[in-house]
Fold these 2 entries.
Entry 1:
Amino acid sequence: MRILVLGGDGFCGWPTALHLSHLGHEIAIVDNLVRRKIDIELECESLTPIRPIGERLKTWKEISGKTIEFYNFNVAKHYHRLLNLIIHWHPDTIIHFAEQRSAPYSMKSSYHKRYTVNNNINATNNILAAIVESNMDIHVVHLGTMGVYGYGSAGMKIPEGYLKIQVQSDGRTIERDILYPPDPGSIYHLTKTQDQLLFAYYNKNDGIRITDLHQGIVWGTQTLETKLDERLINRFDYDGDYGTVLNRFLMQAAISYPLTVHGTGGQTRAFIHIQDTVRCIQIAIENPPKEGERVQVFNQMTETHRIRDLAKMISERTGVPIEYVTNPRNEAEENDLHVENSRFLELGLEPITLNDGLMEEVSDIARKYSYRCDKSKIPCRSFWR
Ligand code: NAD
Ligand code: USQ
């Protein structure tokens, strides 16, 4: 297949591009390198020493003999470059990672709120409008988030995208499938709920075939392909804006920094290892929706954990204490979360669990590169209110 990977220099995009190239697909990456520029804005870097995109691609060619093309432009702004690329490069599939993905970054100021909304919603709309204008049949695979559902399932298992409802009207019982009611917890998550509507509309009006992957929090760093050479190493964010909770705890444990649990740590979240992320995307590409089918949604997660339980688990294994800090976010103190994820399991996903990879991650990545950590960047300084 010919696959365009939008946002292919990022944490999920880079290992996905390598994995799909390894499988023999033709890959081109589009990325405006804005994530690297945000590192400069935040005066913080990936814990792992990621190499410039040119060196990454040269190394991959050296190691695998395969070429990955690269185009540097902004998908949210340069519509005609995107359209021309689609028309001339002729992708079968477009994978869309090209969004601002940090909830704390999206809440820092009105500039960051506006940037996140403009970037994410325009990127998605440009991709869909360009596919319509190109008149081509292209499967769009989007990296969405579990956060579109909100974090609380009131004892119910969150279904994969759609909720079956029964309404009583004029003495009749009407059954319908609706998009699960969105309940975003940040401006970033809000953009993902808006993406869902764009997908539903373009699917209904233009028949675009779309898969929306509602992904949980990704942990880990390396995949089989990024491990092949240090110059292919994936990024690892640990700072208060981009570091996600489990990778932050692993890095904090490696440098004996008390684990920063927000509030009571009563939030329950869904998790997935980066190796399973790339495998899920492969499965999604190999199982596109049929012509005329509605947007297909997969819950891309493998386990759920309460944040304070995760902290306790890591603390017990490493001896590093827990510090309960004031929660910078506006979120419930406690929530439960039960998630349906049978679609990927039925299609052959064999999940990596926390038990399998946790300590390897602490020693192979977090401890190895701990000399690059700037401790002043660990506390979260973005406040919801
Ligand atoms: P990332 O920031 O590491 O990667 C995103 C990439 O997209 C970056 O390389 C960035 O430069 C590029 N980009 C952003 N806007 C662009 C634009 N307008 N034009 C061109 N390139 C652009 O993020 P990630 O962690 O790889 O996340 C990728 C996707 O997966 C996001 O959409 C995110 O919402 C979703 N996701 C991530 C996680 C996670 O834990 N990391 C969990 C669930 C879902
Ligand atoms: N948290 C802590 N301590 C920390 C960091 C976070 O207790 O040091 C808590 C937060 O308060 C929150 C939870 O951990 O309750 C998760 O925070 P996070 O930063 O790991 O994850 P989140 O903001 O939800 O965002 C991440 C990705 C985003 C993706 C989302 C998937 O950055 O792109 O969409 O995970 S999900 O959470 O399932 O919506």
Note: The mean pLDDT is 96.
Entry 2:
Amino acid sequence: MHGARQPAAPHKRIRATVGFMLNLPIVFCLLPVTPANFDFHCHSAVSDGLLPPQEVARRAAGNGVDLWALTDHDDLGGLVIARETAEEAGMGFVPGVEISIEWRGVPIHVVGLGFDPADRGLSGGLDELRSGRIERARRMGDALAAIGIPGAYEGALCFVTNPSLISRAHFARYLVSIGIARDMAGVFQHYLTPGKPGYVDHRWATLQEAIGWIVGAGGVAVAAHPGRYRMSGSEMRRFLDDFKDLGGQGLEVTCGSHSPDQVMHFARLARHYAFHASRGSDFHGPEESYVDLGKLPQLPEDLKPVWRLLS
Ligand code: AMP
Ligand code: MN
Ligand code: MN
Ligand code: MN
């Protein structure tokens, strides 16, 4: 579905060291002036990805990504090594994170980009957010035990690579390993999504908190994979109204889970709201992810790419 369409024009890789937020302490970032292939959404083993951050960085560079953000769920622990490896590979790097929130009962993800990773408001908020995941995972284990699948919490822990970050993806990997379903998509469809037996409610961050942490740390907030939320058109517009009112500036238009129709739909919404557009594979691992790092269509040309806000 998503071809690896690269721009035909040769890309002049002029690199500049830019302090991109004058009001921050010393936050510098190596940004290509005109990135040809940016990927601002992916995961490492610091959250629920399968590869360590340095391997994700090398894979991105090998795939031709020239401006890259690692966006692990609710955790900044991979950013130092990710930046070092990106710079060794000659690839621009932007600090990133994907924050789990709940808005009017709907679980939503907000990507933060270009913030100061040392900011205590952001890191403290994320510490608290992660601490709720263990208790939620235990409840997921109980819920699965109640339908005859015992030991799922302990089983999921065997797949966890960061003890403070257990996600539904770890449960899904465990459930596939014991033959409950053939693949991750099947597990999510039958067990781990709202209304299914292994899904439990959880109090995530609020939209206001997540945007406040990101913007307070000098970053840009982007609404992640909007096509994945179960919302009517009017609910989506109400969400985007709130997102913008609270300081959100970006919308993921091209991403690993969007169909071409969804790309066009969210491009229209980005124009309507004057959002900057982001592009991200949401890569989790070579065997799992349908879209590899950087291997997705370019943004529609008239949209303002979100990297412009970072330099
Ligand atoms: P959590 O943050 O614990 O709610 O887990 C969410 C994660 O589960 C996502 O970031 C994906 O890694 C994974 N996920 C959610 N839905 C699916 C799906 N349908 N297929 C595969 N993985 C999914
Ligand atoms: Mn994930
Ligand atoms: Mn997500
Ligand atoms: Mn993601």
Note: Residues 172 and 184 are 6 Å apart (CA to CA).
